Amino acid sequence: MDRGEESTRGAARDRLVDGGLFALAVAVAVATMALRRDLAPTVPRWVMDLDVVVGALGCLALWWRRRHPLVICVVLVASTTVFEGASAAALAMLFTVAVHRTAREAVPLAACSVLAHTVFQVVRPEPLLPAWMFLVWIVTVHVAVVAWGLLVRSHRQLVASLRERARAAETEARLRTAHARHEAREELAREMHDVLGHRLSLLTVNAGALAYHREATAEETQRAAELIRENAHRALRDLREVIAVLRAPDGDVPLPEAVDIAELVEEANRAGAVVRLRDESGVSTGAHPVPTAVGRALYRFVQEGLTNARKHAPTATVAVTITAEPGAGLSAEVVNEPPPGRFAAAPTGSGAGLLGLGERVALVGGDLRHGPTGGGGWRLGVRLPWTA
Fold first, then answer.
1. I want to staple 47 with a disulfide (CB 3.0 to 4.6 A). Which of 39, 43, 122, 196 is the partner?
2. Closest to 237 (Cα-Cα) out of 197, 185, 193, 195
3. What angle do CA 12, 18, 24 make, to 5 degrees?
4. Phi and psi dihedrals of 149, rounded to 5?
5. CA–CA separation, 73 vs 61, rounded Å?
6. Residues paired with residue 331 on neighbouring β-strands, in sequence order
């Protein structure tokens, strides 16, 4: 239910309650005045007529009870010291004050109303009830009216609190959903950058070889074309795998891990690069399995390092070194020498790859470092946690 519909229903309920209180006050006033007229009159006729007028005005005042509850209640309570016809309307206003105001205001007004009815009993004694019985009846009625009003007020406050909590929970759920979607989009961006960046860099290297080595033999051209075709096919396959991972439940589609690093290096060498892998700890061979999240972060680290080396130093030799010891952590470096004939400069570009890699490494509690080497090359290093 939206707030507009809720407000409409609340207004209809208020009108129904107002009509009910007005009808009840009129019925009680008419019954009281009729009973008073049937008894032997103890006051002049004009006082009885004036009592009827005051009672009618008190009942009409109930239509404005929500706007000025305190003022109307005080006036009606004061009138009950002399006029009996306003008693029902005064009790209705006392109920209104208990519902819409605080107990500090309702209880003193109830005490004043009891005092006013006591004065009325002295001025115009009730012939059917003894004074003490009338007093007990009046106190009981006032306690019941105030208690009922405070109970209604507490119930409304509870309902309003629950609705507010429901709205807050709904808002929080929407924020969590939006945050989850944002994280999913970022994860998709990282995966697509890592996968497609790697494949497209291989395509660029082989396409560049075809463009600049026009003296290449037919066999070399055919091999380069085959590598381009193979990597284009793998790029499409990897893209389908990334999308499948996002669509499938967690764990249904396998993602690359540390044991796939050797294949990654072999693939780069087949494309014409010179990449040397040094892994005495046996992480890339599966001899020392690492946690899935750490292994995946290590794979993406090596992949990003090889991609950057192909972009910025395509003819340089690249060394991939992995050292690990359970409990002491896992370290890896991707170092490329400066290209022959020139000094390696710092990688230029959007930096999205290193930024995404840094976020991925941070998610598993690792630390990413990068910068130039003393010999003019470039080093990309990472340290990942690996508990025994």
1. 43
2. 195
3. 135
4. -65, -40
5. 10
6. 323, 383
- The span from the CA of 248 to the CA of 271, in Å, is 32
DSSP 202-223: HHHHHHHHHHH-TT--HHHHHH
Helix (H, G, I), strand (E, B) or coil at 368: strand
| Separation of alpha carbons 353 and 194, rounded Å | 7
Q: What are phi and psi of 163, to 5 degrees?
A: -65, -40
**What is the dihedral sign for C-alpha 102, 108, 114, 119?**
negative
- What are the structure tokens assigned to 65, written together? 């009870």
Give, in degrees to the nearest 5, the angle at Cα 63 between 62 and 67.
95
The kind and range of the H/E element at 86 are none
Facing residues of 370 across strands?
380
Structure tokens at 289: 């399995």
Dihedral class, residue 125 (left if φ above 0, else alpha if ψ from -120 to 50, else beta): beta
Give pLDDT tens digits for 258-315: 888 988 888 888 877 888 999 888 888 888 888 888 888 898 889 888 888 877 787 7
Contacts of 137 (CB under 8 A, 6+ apart): 129
Closest to 353 (Cα-Cα) out of 308, 306, 286: 308
| Closest among 73, 51, 50, 52 to 61, alpha carbons compared | 73
Q: Is the dihedral of CA 214, 218, 220, 224 positive or negative?
A: positive
- Paired sense of beta strands 317-325 and 274-278, if any: parallel
The tens digit of pLDDT for each residue in 189-214 reads 666 666 666 666 666 666 666 666 66
Please state, in angstroms and rounded to a whole number, the distance separating the CA atoms of residues 179 and 65. 48
How far is 384 from 324, CA to CA, in rounded Å? 9
Q: CB under 8 Å to 326, separation ≥6 — which residues?
A: 288, 386, 387, 388
Question: Rounded to two decimals, what is the model's pTM?
Answer: 0.46
Token pair, residue 256, equals 């690359």
Angle at 183 between CA 199 and CA 242, to 5 degrees: 30
